[in-house]
Amino acid sequence: MSNDSTITQQAFVSSLSEKRIKLIIITLLSLYPLTGMGIDLIAPSLPAISLDLHTSNTFSKNLVTLYLLGYTLGTFCIGFLSDAIGRRKPILCSFFIFVIVSILPAIFNIPILLLSCRFLQGFAIAGFGVNGRAILSDILPKEKLIRTATFIATMWGIGPIIGPIIGGYLQFYFNWQMCFYFYAFMGLIGLLAVMFIVPETHFNRQPLQFQQLKTNFITIATHRLFLGIVILMGIVYSLLIAFSTLGPFLIQTSLGYSSIYFGKIALLLGLAFLVSTFLCRQLLKHFYPEDIFFYAMIFFTLVAASGVLLAHINNTNIWFIVIPSLFMFMACGIIYPAGMGKGLSLFRHLAGSASATMNLINMSITSLTAFVMSFIHANNCLVVAYIYLGLMLLTCVNYYLLIKTGMKEYQIKQ
User: Fold this and answer.
1) What is the dihedral sign for C-alpha 381, 383, 384, 389?
2) What is the mean pLDDT of residues 38-51?
3) Which one of 245, 312, 361, 364 has the minimum C-beta count within 10 Å?
4) CB 224 within 8 A of CB 412
5) What rounded mean pLDDT belongs to the chain?
6) Max Cα separation, the chain?
């Protein structure tokens, strides 16, 4: 890292007025709901896609898996690339590709094309997701970055709120193809917004050399506290993925409710997530992120255990899965943004690489979860309840093996 490049970065940040910084932040945050809609908009259409294309339920569920896999690989590749070439160009290219691959499956109803485009949708939107966070790391001080990260989670959370209800109505009154046209329209808005409002913010470039990338990755991925945090993020996000993958078939196919009804339930769960991100922001004013992880983990594990008991009482009562799901969405809304802010703050000098590594690990976990869920037939509430409990127990194991010891190591180094 040269002194000249550091001065250039500092000079650029100093040249930004408070008004310009706020405009950049508002623009980026306003686009984050699209990343949250990547899964949830088409969730109500998964059973219809299986019927329309004459494929299995596993095929439709893997539309979630491939999107997450694409997002995982996209954040890793584009995140490291952005530390070398900047933030703006990768975002613009990503939105352009997202628009194209959203239109294609709507026009050509070919199963293999649909699978490919879902992978590319995830890969493309990852370019915005990872670089949006990196831009905030570029222009905000550490304390404000941790607080602003909760807003990222809040705006992302709007996607799971409005996505299923929009997707439910699009499916009910039109067809699943209309969801992809909607994706393309939103991607076009993102392309234009970044083009006219968001400048390049990264001038402290890292050489695009394999050895340097490898060194950065190893440095970040072997940081015990960072690793524990991103694994925790992946596990709690898997709570949402479990519902998004199994919920449409449980509620619409097994329990007999409509796509609109599923959308309304998903709306309720999304609102719970959104409210919990605001709660997280308030908690961060009074507690360290590590304390939030611990107490939230204990509380929501007990809730998940209670959900199993409820499902044993009546495994076909829809509210006996909706209520536990609501609390699981809250768990993600509290833990995930606190983890994101804390994790990014550990490597502000390698913001793109840290964001890429963060997503590689936590999204690999959620991709694996979605893949496993594609083979599970949840014909009653008990199956989902046990999955919630299992995931929450994993958060406890992760906390004691990595986060707790990682905090001690980090405090010693400080």
Assistant:
1) positive
2) 86
3) 312
4) no
5) 85
6) 67
- Scored b (16 or more CB within 10 A) or e, 236-248 reads bbbbbbbbbbbbb
- Single out the residue of 336, 224, 220 nearest to residue 284, CA to CA: 336
Between 342 and 81, name the one with better pLDDT. Answer: 342
- The tokens for 204 are 């402290």
**pLDDT tens digits, 121-131:** 999 998 898 88
State the CATH architecture for 16-413: Up-down Bundle (1.20)
11, amino acid identity: A
Q: How confident is the model at residue 312 (pLDDT cuts 50, 70, 90)?
A: very high
Give the integer Cα–Cα distance in Å for 403 and 397: 10
pLDDT of residue 342: 86
Lookup: tokens for 172? 């009910």
Provide the token pair at 54. Answer: 């004459």
Residue in the block written with tokens 């997002």: 71
pLDDT at 75 (0 to 100): 79
The CB density around residue 413, as the number of other CB atoms within 10 Å, is: 8
- Between helix 224-248 and helix 404-413 the angle, nearest 10°, is 150
- The pair of three-digit structure tokens given for residue 214, joined into one six-digit string: 């490898």
Two structure tokens written together for 339: 């983890």
C-alpha span between 99 and 151 (Å, rounded): 25
Phi, psi (degrees; rounded to nearest 5) at 199: -85, 175
Q: How confident is the model at residue 1 (pLDDT cuts 50, 70, 90)?
A: very low
Angle at 236 between CA 235 and CA 240, to 5 degrees: 110
Q: pTM, whole model, 2 decimals?
A: 0.73
Domain residue spans in the chain? 16-413
Using CA atoms, how far apart are residues 303 and 323, in angstroms rounded to an integer?
10
